[in-house]
């Protein structure tokens, strides 16, 4: 069964580096990876927040939030 | 060719969660993943620092440091 992994970002340089390297490195045979640009999909900010995301870039795997470096606080995306 | 990914941690709860979830999710067909416990291998703190690691848990992929959440500053491990 595939585990859901969601990578939230906002297009910032820190986000792009994490997307290209960390999100790209996930095992696609085990994980279904969705990339969400919160700057362009503001309707999903609440979903990220509910998952415990405080800043982007962040990766939510199995409902657990992992903040990867620091690009921007979620509050600036609301 | 396999890319080198090094996961640095210090056994803290935040580290263990990141290890079990993020380090575990990396595609082993493309990445050679090494797990380094800096509390037990203090001789490798300098190597992590040279790679730009400031805190653990951190993942270094292709020489780029990615700090995943925040467990402890590297300075407390010296």
Q: What is the count of DSSP helices of chain A, taking H or I runs of 4+ residues? A: 2
Helix content of chain A: 10-25%
- Shape call of chain A: globular
For the terminal residues of chain A, how far apart are their CA atoms? 34 Å
Order of strands across the biggest sheet of chain A? 2-1-3-4
Instruction: Give a short account of the largest sheet of chain A.
Output: 4 strands, mixed
Low-confidence stretches of chain A at least 5 residues in length (pLDDT < 50)?
none
Rg of chain A over CA atoms, rounded to whole Å, is: 11 Å
SSE order of chain A, one letter for each helix or strand: EHEHEE
Mean pLDDT of chain A: 96
Beta-strand percent range of chain A: 35-45%
Pair of chains with the largest interface and how many residues each contributes: A-B, 23 and 23 residues
How many beta-strand segments of chain A? Answer: 4
Backbone structural class of chain A: alpha+beta
Oligomeric state: homodimer
């Amino acid at each position: 069964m595939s585990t859901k992994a969601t990578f939230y970002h906002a297009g910032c340089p820190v986000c792009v580096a994490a997307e290209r390297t960390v999100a790209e490195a996930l095992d696609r045979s085990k994980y279904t990876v969705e990339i969400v640009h919160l700057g362009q999909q503001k309707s999903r900010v609440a979903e990220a927040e509910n998952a415990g995301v405080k800043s982007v870039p962040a990766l939510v795997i199995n409902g657990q939030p992992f903040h990867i470096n620091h690009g921007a606080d979620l509050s600036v995306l609301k």
